[in-house]
Amino acid sequence: MAIECITSAKLMTQPPKQKNERNENEESSSSLVFDASFLRHQLNLPKQFIWPDDEKPCMNVPELDVPLIDLKNFLSGDPFAAMEASKTIGEACEKHGFFLVVNHGIDAKLIEHAHSYMNDFFEVPLSQKQRCQRKTGEHCGYASSFTGRFSSKLPWKETLSFQFSDENNSSNIVKDYLSNTLGEDFQQFGEVYQEYCEAMSKLSLGIMELLGMSLGVGKECFREFFEENKSIMRLNYYPPCQKPDQTLGTGPHCDPTSLTILHQDQVGGLQVFVDNEWHSIRPNFNAFVVNIGDTFMALSNGRYKSCLHRAVVNNKTTRKSLAFFLCPKSDKVVSPPSELVNDLTPRIYPDFTWPMLLEFTQKHYRADMRTLEAFTKWIQQKQN
User: Fold this and answer.
1) What InterPro entries does this protein map onto (predicted)?
2) pLDDT tens readout for residues 172-209
């Protein structure tokens, strides 16, 4: 690997500087604003967006050979296809936690609309986007980078996040939130993402059946656990950067959620850390990139891996992606099935609920490769 790339030794041994970053944030980050319409043309980046030399991105990295799972026969009820798909998914999750799904049953027009409607929001002036500004300690709303939380190693991106609920009494939660927050002009915008989230939730439950089969606990185990899920949808918008070798669109982290279903545009930028080096995942507009998060890693008692990944940017083209983060209902206790716990594989993580981990990542800790480990210690300290 090139010398400027992260090596496994550097990556895994540096202690997270959570407290220092939070103190810096309190002192100086409030005056910084990430206005993409201005910053995308700047040759000199604000220092807050320049990453340390040992964490700066490599633009030319090898491509990851990601398993491609064809869901067509599984979705039609073929038991043999389900077994084959679950086996392939299980192998991927034990190694790095990433795989692709095709023939997933999601309407191609819906995916196209979900991408195109992002422009309606992100390309308006900053003052208009700030009408739904994400508040400190919350996870929904508009965020221009993380300027409100941190003052160093800031990501070169804008996001719009909102809650989805699969509970019967929350049938229009996405549409209502976006329409109420952004105004009547965004009613169709809300309808598109309401439909998209419903489709993602349905697809997630199908994938949970395959994960349950692959772990030997039955296809209903995790499907039932995530029914009436209370998940998060995030629109990611990475504007061009004149010095893409100095910053990152999203820093190295493992998703704290259970399952991520990502749809990339054709620009590319997703990188995954596997076998001690970074790899790219080639965009495929017909496929979803799926990866395991920390919460499911805990549910599997550590069998399946929450993989380190990041996003790089470029100096020519805006990159967009759609990320659906599957999360369990608030009162569900994250505890592995009894089949996955025995004398040879004892419990690794304590019981917790998703709101506990969400609070930890929003108020106490910047998600990275050690989130679950740090969260475990935090829980144990609170219990003592």
Assistant:
1) DIOX_N, IPNS-like_FE2OG_OXY, IPNS-like_sf, Iron_ascorbate_oxido_reductase, Oxoglu/Fe-dep_dioxygenase_dom
2) 999 999 999 998 889 999 999 999 999 999 999 999 99
